Amino acid sequence: MTDSLPDFDAIYAGRADTEWIDQVPWNIGEPQPAIAALIDAGRVSGEVLDAGCGVGETALYLAARGHSVVGLDLSPTAIDQARRAAEERGLTAEFAVADVTSFTGYDGRFATVIDSTLFHSIPVASRSPYLGAIAKASASGAVLHVLVFTKELGFPEGEGPNTVDEPELRAAVEEHWSVESVVPSSVEAILPPTIAASAPRDGRGRVQLPAFLLTARRKD
Q1: Residue 36 CB neighbour total at 10 angstroms
Q2: What is the pTM of this model?
Q3: Residues near 204 by Cβ (< 8 Å), separated by ≥ 6?
Q4: Which residue has the higher pLDDT, 107 or 2?
Q5: Distance between CA 190 and CA 206 in Å, rounded?
Q6: Tens-place pLDDT, residues 182-215
Q7: Cα(4)–Cα(219) distance, rounded to whole angstroms?
Q8: Which of 124, 126, 136, 163 has its CA 20 to 30 A from that of 3?
Q9: Higher pLDDT, 117 or 21
């Protein structure tokens, strides 16, 4: 497990000291398919918080379908890119730079919270403050959807994202939310053939990495 955040702003700005990628792997030009499927199935309602929104693809997908949505991210570069994309596409969505573990000003506002690959990107010690902060920002009966890497990803100890097994994920979320389901899923990423060479790929060559999709409801 890692106890510090990568410099995500440097990654989004193309300043990251990484020799193995030439673009942000999780920027696939659309929402993660698992999240898009939830939206298309009508499992997202009311005003939506896109927690750790990055460049805003999930938020803009929601906005295009008539949802009121707020995207929060720690990276000013990512938020700037999200705002530009909204303007270019003629869509209305609110984006703001914020620390999702301690943000304020949205108490009781959201009916749905979407966490698309944020959970494994924050330090383990930040999980409880984060889950508490989004619960505080949520309305009674709000639903949380989390797409998160599993330990099957196989990063060496102390490197990479803070992956989870199912008991660990459930225990963390249950502190602030009532878990309704955890199902196997995948995160799609753009990686060169030399990285994750044995992982399956979709029809567009994107790597499909093991994940869980959790759904929970706010404890009232």
Answers
A1: 16
A2: 0.91
A3: none
A4: 107
A5: 5
A6: 999 999 987 766 666 677 777 777 888 899 999 9
A7: 29
A8: 136
A9: 117
Element (H, E) at 34: helix 33-40
Rg of the chain in Å (alpha carbons): 16
Selection from 121, 135, 215, 124 nearest residue 175 by Cα: 135
Can you tell me whether residue 6 is helix, strand or coil?
coil
**What structural domains does the chain harbor?**
22-218 (3.40.50.150)
- In this structure, the number of other CB atoms found within 10 A of the CB of residue 156 comes to 6
What's the pLDDT score for residue 199? Answer: 73
Q: What is the DSSP letter of 208?
A: E
Q: Could you tell me the CA-to-CA distances from 130 to 39, 59, 89 in Å, in that order?
A: 23, 19, 31
DSSP symbol at 3: -
Least Cα distance to 52 among 104, 111, 8 occurs for 8
User: In this structure, are residues 119 and 148 in contact, taking their beta carbons and an 8 Å threshold?
Assistant: yes
Say if CB 146 and CB 214 are below 8 A apart.
yes
The residue to which tokens 């955040």 are assigned? 5
* 13-57 per-position pLDDT tens digit: 666 555 445 567 778 899 999 999 999 999 999 999 999 999 999
Closest CA to 115 of 32, 204, 52, 22: 52
pLDDT digits (tens, 9 = 90+) for 75-102: 999 999 999 999 999 999 999 999 999 9
Residue length, the chain? 220
Token pair recorded at residue 8: 């995500």
